[in-house]
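Subject: design request, 681 residues
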């Protein structure tokens, strides 16, 4: 039986500090986490909201090497940028710290040491690639070579970013070190592993039986992992940058980021509450909720709970409402391609419109499946919903009160049915928003909150106080009293979703945050009779077409930079006859040998098996391909091209290539293995 929460511990995934944050991060993690935290505070709950930057790992060291600086300089830059973006968008962390802090290093090292001393780890020796020139073991991302699936010559040891294949370093063709360029060798190294398999039975009971209320995407992914069986996972790696393993003889070994980063939630809480942190982490009446994206489900639902269970004494997450991914203009957001809307750039283009983006991202939140952000939808929601409904209603209510009653809250008379129905919607909206937020349905909660604005807008349209004032001033007092009670309710119910708008609305209504809280919602006396309103002001401005066109053009330029979509195919050549086409003999050949031609910068000499014979062919592609990476490939070749002598070598045919928009050459290859000499027709 679950205890009624006395306090709430809300965490959000630690963004990786090797770049700025974009709208995908905001929609997937930080807006829902902030909405939930603000909602709990409005209800008077004891809650802390923990955030911070994840600053260790190989990508940080790679970026530092690329930029000619230290890893610390990289994370210092992006930590501050990320922190400011969150502040600018009103993400109300109680603490936003970082994993490079001294507190975190000590907390993570102590956590590891306790498990190590209690024999909770197993130690294994394995062979890994080692760079003899650099004198260090190579993480997967520091090993580069040919992708065995698509031929990309710059695939990493863990993934080919061209075709998306997951790889292991030993699969790469002609692997070499990204540090020195030399060919690495295999060398033994020892590491510590957390035996996740020992916790499998416990996890099945805890998740599959005791947390069936978790979102289907979270529950389903956990079940899939558990059904496939868990394996021990390394908690250390050979790397200087990170929390160093606090064991004698472990020099040059750091904690793996998957183990190190979630401990950041604990260390950041310690930084916030050095004398009182344990009540949030070690009291059974604390409810801990992790807000993450779907790529972090396994780490927060399986691995981190196993770590906490192994350590003992810590509370486990009550819920992990992970979201799916947000796409941008029907394309996957990609930081490497620059296909994103960066938060700091958004505020440069749309100053003061944080809440418009918060509103649109929440309305399109990828809660159960991947969703899509488009600039046209952004414009439409601002103009037709925020401006035309929410803003229009509040502005009319305040302006008419200012005009007819000097801005003072009027005394209502007897309520008509239409008045009672409008006021009843406040309590109904409150109930529905609570039900949805308590169940982590943020899109639906926002929809119900916005429906209250729709109620107000329709109420004024139906009652027409600007007409009634000519014949019945007392009736107008009642109408505007009801409209202003609805406006005050919107200032409260919209606060979790749109904090800047709520603050602005409170200013227009001349009420402070202490005056209006969540629990009185539903009352028809939120604003007392005679209360003096502030000056009218527009809550939202219309967004014009040229502002949206500029954003779309910016994205189009990014496509052009990446050689995507904006590529314009060359006009076709003049028509040829079928007989001309029939003269060309294109076949699949296999490259048996390949080497650079001496004294030539571009030429590669290849020996190919054409099925009917073996012959030599030259290609001017040395700046695109490593000769050894071509060996063993089957490619398309025009075999009846008249022989041609180049630099003293006779070339007997032409290998066919495709050229991408950015000028990159790609081999024309069969989808699968075929016999050498097969015709292409």
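Subject: RE: design request

Done. Sequence follows.
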């Amino acid at each position: 039986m679950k205890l009624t929460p006395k306090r709430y511990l809300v965490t959000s995934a630690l963004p990786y500090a090797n770049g700025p944050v974009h709208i995908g991060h905001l929609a997937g993690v930080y807006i829902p986490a902030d909405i939930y935290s603000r909602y709990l505070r409005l209800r008077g709950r004891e809650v802390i909201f923990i955030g911070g930057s994840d600053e260790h790992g190989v990508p940080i060291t790679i970026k530092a090497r690329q930029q000619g600086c230290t890893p610390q300089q990289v994370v210092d830059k992006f930590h501050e940028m990320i922190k400011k973006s969150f502040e600018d968008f009103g993400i109300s962390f109680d603490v936003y710290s970082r994993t490079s802090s001294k507190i975190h290093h000590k907390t993570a090292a102590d956590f590891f040491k306790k498990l190590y001393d209690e024999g909770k780890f197993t130690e294994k020796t394995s062979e890994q690639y080692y760079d003899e020139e650099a004198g260090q073991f190579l993480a997967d991302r520091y090993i580069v070579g040919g992708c065995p699936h698509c031929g990309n010559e710059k695939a990493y040891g863990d993934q080919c970013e061209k075709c998306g294949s997951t790889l292991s370093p030993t699969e790469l063709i002609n692997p070499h070190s990204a540090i020195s360029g030399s060919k690495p060798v295999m060398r033994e190294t020892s590491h510590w592993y957390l035996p996740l398999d020992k916790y499998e039975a416990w996890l099945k009971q805890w998740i599959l039986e005791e947390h069936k209320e978790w979102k289907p995407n979270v529950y389903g992914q956990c079940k899939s992992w558990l059904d496939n069986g868990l394996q021990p996972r390394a908690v250390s790696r050979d790397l200087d940058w990170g929390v160093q393993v606090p064991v004698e003889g472990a020099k040059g070994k750091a904690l793996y980021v998957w183990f190190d980063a979630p401990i950041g939630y604990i260390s950041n809480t310690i930084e916030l509450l050095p004398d009182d942190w344990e009540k949030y982490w070690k009291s059974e009446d604390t409810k801990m909720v992790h807000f993450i994206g779907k790529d972090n489900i396994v780490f927060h639902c399986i691995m981190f709970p196993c770590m906490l269970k192994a350590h003992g004494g810590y509370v486990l997450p009550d819920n992990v409402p992970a979201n799916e991914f947000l796409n941008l203009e029907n394309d996957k957001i990609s930081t490497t391609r620059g296909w994103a809307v960066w938060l700091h750039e958004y505020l440069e283009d749309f100053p003061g419109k944080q809440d418009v983006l918060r509103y649109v991202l929440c309305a399109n939140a990828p809660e159960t499946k991947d969703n899509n952000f488009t600039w046209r939808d952004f414009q439409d929601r601002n103009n037709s919903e925020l401006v035309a409904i929410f803003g229009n209603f509040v502005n009319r209510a305040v302006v008419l009160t200012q005009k007819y009653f000097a801005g003072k809250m009027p005394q209502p008379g007897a309520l008509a049915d239409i008045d009672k129905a409008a006021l009843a919607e406040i309590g109904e909206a409150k109930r529905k928003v609570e039900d949805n937020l308590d169940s982590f349905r943020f899109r639906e909660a926002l929809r119900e909150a916005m429906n209250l604005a729709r109620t107000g807008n329709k109420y004024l349209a139906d009652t027409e106080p600007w007409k009634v004032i000519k014949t019945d001033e007392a009736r107008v007092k009642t109408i505007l009293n009801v409209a202003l009670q609805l406006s005050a309710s919107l200032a409260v119910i919209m606060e979790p979703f749109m904090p800047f708008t709520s603050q602005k609305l409170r200013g227009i209504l001349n009420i402070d945050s202490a005056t209006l809280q969540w629990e009185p919602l539903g009352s028809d006396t939120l604003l007392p009779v005679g209360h003096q309103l502030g000056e009218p002001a527009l809550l939202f401005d219309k967004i014009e077409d040229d502002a949206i066109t500029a954003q779309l053009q910016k994205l189009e330029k990014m496509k052009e930079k990446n050689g995507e979509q904006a590529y314009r195919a060359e006009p076709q050549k003049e028509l040829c006859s079928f007989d001309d086409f029939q003269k060309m003999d294109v076949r699949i050949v296999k490259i048996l040998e390949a080497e650079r031609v001496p004294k030539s910068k571009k030429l590669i000499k290849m020996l190919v098996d054409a099925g009917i014979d073996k012959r030599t062919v030259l290609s001017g592609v040395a700046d695109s391909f490593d000769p050894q990476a071509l060996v063993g490939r089957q490619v398309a070749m025009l075999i009846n091209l008249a022989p041609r002598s180049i630099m003293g070598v006779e070339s007997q045919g032409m290998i066919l290539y495709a050229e991408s928009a950015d000028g990159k050459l790609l081999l024309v290859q069969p989808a699968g293995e075929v016999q050498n000499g097969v015709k292409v027709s």
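The chain has a mean pLDDT of 92.
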